Amino acid sequence: MINLVAYKSNALIEASYKLTLQEQRVLLMCIGKLNPNDENTEKKFQLTASEFFLAFPDMGKENAERHLQSAIDRLWDRSIIINWRDKKEEIRWIQGRAKYHTGEGRIELVFSDLIMPYLTQLKGQFTSIAVKNVSALKRTYSIRIYELLMQFKKTGDRLVHLDDFRSMLGLEDKYSQFKRLNDDVIKPAIKELNEKSDLSVSVDTIKNGRKVVSLHFQFQQDKQIKIAI
Fold first, then answer.
1. How does DSSP classify residue 72?
2. Domains of the chain
3. FRET pair for 197, CA 20 to 30 Å: which of 2, 17, 140, 151?
4. Helix H or strand E segment including 89
């Protein structure tokens, strides 16, 4: 289970959405169970507390069931705004509310029909995320930044406009001052990525006068802990 790899279209990677840490973890595991090459792949998945703990052991076995249940509480309410190549749409992750089976330590969810094209038949325009390589990340935005960087893993270099960065992380209405964004989101996430993922990351700011307008990320993978994709 820890060798699951989640494949997402680049349009989904750059979409605007907000998820809690546990919601991101649950979705990564279920996406990792999909067959990305089959548009008719099963879209209904079950996930047990035991599987969840094995993939993310930092949570502690005694907490796995509670985290699994909390992860699906608001997942139905989470939407994604896709804005890719002149196409803009708002879609949901799941079709109907996810179910928690009391006493069984098991959840069941069904991906929405509208999200499936962004998870299957990707034809080269996708980003692959090995669940193992993000299993120790605990900060809400660390996994999202990891995904945005892995979209450019061939070059290890990504320049992103600050407004686009805020949008992708669902922060349009927060951290209007860059210092707050840097202190509360960027620096802690980069620190965690360097300490707990397979990436070594640095980031510089690009300014227009005194105003920060873009972020320039440079990164490389540590081959010793990298899982083959």
1. H
2. 5-118 (1.10.10.10), 139-221 (1.10.10.10)
3. 17
4. strand 87-92
